[in-house]
Amino acid sequence: MLGLAIAGAAAAGAASLGYQSMSPTGQWFGRAFCGLPGGGNDLALTFDDGPNDPYTLRLLDVLGKHDVRATFFLIGRYVKQRPDIAREIAQRGHVIGNHTFTHPRLIFLPAASIRHEILQCREAISDAVGEHSNLFRPPWGGRRPGVFGPGVFSIVRRLGLEPVMWNVTGYDWDAPSVEYIEQKVASKVRAPDVVPLRDGGKALRSRRGGGEVVLLHDGGHAAFGADRGKTVEAVDRLIVRFRSEGRGFATITQMMSAKIV
After folding, report:
1. Domain residue spans in the chain?
2. CATH number among 3.20.20.370, 3.40.930.10, 2.70.70.10, 3.40.50.10260, domain 41-256
3. How far apart, in whole angstroms, are the C-alpha atoms of residue 48 and residue 245?
């Protein structure tokens, strides 16, 4: 019986470790920003796997129409392929972060390869746009602890970068419809934080630095040119939807520094 109990505990522990290595809000393997729980009515729209033609440019038009700034985590090899799109992202006032050079599963790479992926991506972005943020998002959110060497986030921080995850997912990489993406995001965003007024009404509570981080995609890691038309339309709808609730939008940089606009 004791052996079975030990085996069961070991299996449960392994499952927990596996979950934490990919969980967007898990903090076991290193601290990462994934929104601020319990605070604020602001949303940070984040987009992975770009730049991508033509959908990144279409997305920029939608964001510009609504005067919303977002955060783009770019794949280095695509930046080298289309530095003009990366420059357009920066010129329109959005934040650019590092998403590695080839989008590998970092949990399986040696430390030297992880550093190489990050540094190659940093170089590609710097060549395209110059100075940019120190934000980093691991592909698939994958990371590992520092058991037989430095953990992923330990390497990231030694390179001067800050890990960023998310707490709301749009599941847009293979979404069947625009409505599917919209509903996935809307169903995961917490209800607006309100404060009662003396006249019996309610008003949104303003909390600096609060909010949620939404994961979406303007590109695809497997190949350049992934169709993200549904995401572009869903973002247009989501901005209108959340603005009607009185919510604001922020970049990750603004949210982390509590400068919500």
Report:
1. 41-256
2. 3.20.20.370
3. 26
Distance between CA atoms of 116 and 112, rounded to whole angstroms?
A: 6
Say yes or no to pLDDT of 209 above 50.
no
- Tell me the pTM: 0.85
**Rounded to an integer, what distance in angstroms lies between the CA atom of residue 48 and that of residue 162?**
16
What Rg do the C-alpha atoms of the chain give, in angstroms?
Answer: 19
126-153 residue pLDDT tens: 999 999 999 999 999 998 876 556 899 9
Cβ atoms within 10 Å of 182's Cβ, excluding its own: 21
pLDDT digits (tens, 9 = 90+) for 99-126: 999 999 999 999 999 999 999 999 999 9
Degrees, nearest 5: CA angle 112-134-240: 125
Q: What three-state secondary structure class fits 178?
A: helix
Average pLDDT over residues 221-239: 97
Whether the CB-CB separation of 189 and 37 falls below 8 Å is answered with: no
Half-sphere exposure of 53 (CA within 13 A, CB side): 9
| 89 to 3, 184, 194: CA distances (angstroms) | 57, 26, 34
Distances (CA, A) of 57 to 54, 82, 85, 88, 167: 6, 12, 7, 8, 25
Does an H or E element contain 186, and which?
helix 178-188
From the DSSP assignment, how many helices (H) and strands (E) are in the chain?
A: 9, 10
